[in-house]
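task queued by scheduler; priority normal; single chain, no ligands, no partner chains; default sampling; output format set to structure tokens
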Amino acid sequence: MSLSPPVVGTVVVGRVGVWVASRSAGSLEDMTQQITTVSAYAAPAPEAPLERTTVPRRAVGETDVLIDIKYAGICHSDIHQARDGWGKGIYPMVPGHEIAGVVTEVGAGVTKFAVGDRVGVGCMVDSCRECENCVAGLEQYCLKGNVPTYNGRGKDGEPTYGGYSTHIVVDEAFTVRIPDGLSLDVAAPLLCAGITTYSPLAHWNAGPGKKVAIVGLGGLGHMAVKIAHAMGAEVTVLSQTLRKKADGLQLGADHYYATSDEATFEALAGSFDLIVSTVSAPLPLDKYLGLLRTDGAFVNVGAPEEPVSLNLFSVIGGRKTLAGSGIGGIRETQEMLDFCAEHGLGAEIELIDADRINEAYERVLASDVRYRFVIDTSTI
């Protein structure tokens, strides 16, 4: 969106929102000092229902893109953070790090994107860009801490607000291209659920000849099954019950077992090269580690709020690995999107209007979604 420099003290109303001039009129410097206000849904306080509000967005800088958000996925971590489950949050909090939309303006120095491009934004919007991890394309493990898409603070000290909103301004370095083979609504959840599962599957070499188990068949789990199957692995779902067995097999699983049945742990002992746990509840880790082959790895991508216990002999015997994995870098996120487009992999979604966000939260907690809620942000 292009605006002429306003007169001091005036308010220019555009499609994006309200742009406020803060300095003398007429210079490019003035434009960088403007703030745009956009509609959003925010949690005003811990445990409070989300409500419609407005939040500020910075003006488009030299290397920024302005994104008209079309869809935003609802991740379980949105609920954890909105309710202070992972520590003290910043309020009002606008959740959302599964963002898909269209570029509507670019800064003068942008080289990767143009107006009209289909793009996505995931769990981070900046990092130090200088440490060894950032240089290696592992911005998610930035040694100085990356800047989360929401519930964080940018380098300017201002709070970050996420995708439950109509527009967002992001540096092009933390923006990814959504391939034409993916529709924006099913692509949105890939920006967290997709990359969170793709990254450990790729790192631990899931593929032909490997036996991979996925714990949980929810928002993350269903994408893990799809991706592991597309990589060529033999895939088993480990879920509390057999209630979703038909879905799991249709999504690409070769086998499906109920973990509520103790016989499962006896039958599958020593079976797997890799287990990826996608659940956010604490698990009896010693039992699950017993399912690994020698040199197998159990990788956590779900993050329980409670601490877990472990008998170290469960990893010493069999030289097993207990690990964690958090999203992926920007390069790997683009790789994941291209992989999903090539294999026709999108999330299984339930599209909702914004006024159903609070209802959706309760349904996520009740495991009553198949398999990702996605907000139509035109309803915000």
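post-processing summary
- The chain has twelve helices and 19 strands.
- The first helix runs from residue 28 to 32.
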